[in-house]
Amino acid sequence: MHRRLRPFLLALLAAGVTACPSIGGGEPPERPMSQMEARSFQTRAYETEDTRLVMKALINALQDMGLIIKTADADLGLLTAEKWTNVPHTKKEIRKAQKKELALASSVVLECTANVSPFGNSTRVRIVFQQKTLDGAGAVLQANMIQDPGFYQDFFSRVSKSVFLQQEGV
Asked: Which residues of 88-124 are buried (b: 16+ CB within 10 A; e: fewer)?
């Protein structure tokens, strides 16, 4: 499991997947991230005009993270992938949820969609990651776009290494 996702999953489990917004008092809500702010860390350019090479590097980086490629269309520059993880629960957590008639998370799905396109003398990649929490019946309990710039920085570092390896024929 990816190092940056583990704390999120543990926090999700500890909260019992039932987050309630505080009414009055407490900390003020965080300012929503603008579309331009999100795009700034979701997008990178690679110094090559070979979009197929970048697409293959992107596929390799996603597979290294354990994601399964669902769609890859080099002509459109579209790539989708996902990774499913089961959420284990103790008997105590299950009994507690049953008493309160709460739905426990059964699976966490990490999904991504990437757009790879030529940009002058380089190739531009924009990727968006989303994390969904599902109950035992497959209903979505929670879905959030990953907005951690560090997560994307780490991901693009993997892609950069993969681009280099592709260029070197390794």
From this structure: ebeeeeeeebeeeeebbbbebebbbbbebeeeeeebb
Q: Would you place residue 29 in the very low, low, confident or very high pLDDT band (cuts 50, 70, 90)?
A: low
Please list, in sequence order, all residues whose beta carbon lies within 8 angstroms of the beta carbon of residue 37, skipping any fewer than 6 positions away. Answer: none
Split at pLDDT 50, 70, 90, the class of 168 is confident
pLDDT tens-place string over residues 105-143: 889 999 999 999 999 999 999 999 999 999 888 889 999
Of residues 37, 24, 133, 31, the one with CA closest to residue 87: 133
Q: What is the number of other CB atoms lying within 10 angstroms of the CB of residue 165?
A: 13
Query: Which residues sit opposite 46 in a β-bridge?
Result: 123
CATH code assigned to 40-168: 3.30.310.80
